[in-house]
Design goal:
6 strands
Length: 159
């Protein structure tokens, strides 16, 4: 089975669907992992760390990456224009935002793709490992705490 990790195209999106540690876990589970070149750059993971983790980095042939993939991972919905290149019967896993991206959902249906919208995973204790909303809220909480400490520390040093 092949997993493809896409580079994000949404403005300001700095996340990546799989980090090198995740790639190693997928490889150990028997999957083949292919990563679009530059997919991790905004998250500070250059292509060479994906190669070191065992992934194949695909430079210029996005259609080939998608056509051969059984599962495609992305943070935001894949660009609408790329969905026709996906292998029929393939699976897309991302934050699909079905209420906002109905055209993507229809395109997945029309191309025979199964789509999993990660933000719709139930927020329960049993599904917590897959709950992207709680994970992002946790990160936002840490970031807010660090920002508050920086403000307080700055105020103290100004005195």
């Amino acid at each position: 089975m092949r997993i493809a990790v896409l580079a994000e195209t949404a403005p300001g999106e700095r996340r990546v669907a799989a980090v090198p540690e995740t790639v190693e876990r997928l490889l150990n589970a028997g999957w083949e992992v292919r990563v679009e070149s530059g997919a991790g750059l905004a998250a500070y993971f250059p292509d060479d760390v994906y190669t070191a983790a065992g992934a194949t980095v695909v430079d210029d042939d996005l259609d080939d990456l998608l056509r051969d993939a059984d599962v495609v991972l992305s943070v935001q919905p894949p660009p609408l224009g790329t969905l026709g290149a996906f292998r029929e019967g393939g699976t897309v896993i991302s934050m699909m935002a079905p209420s906002s991206y109905g055209d993507h959902i229809r395109a997945c249906r029309d191309h025979g793709l199964t789509a999993f919208a990660l933000e719709l995973v139930p927020r329960t204790a049993r599904a917590q490992a897959m709950d992207v909303l709680s994970a992002q809220a946790l990160v936002a909480g840490y970031r807010a705490t660090l920002a508050a400490v920086a403000v307080v520390a700055g105020a103290r040093t100004a005195d």
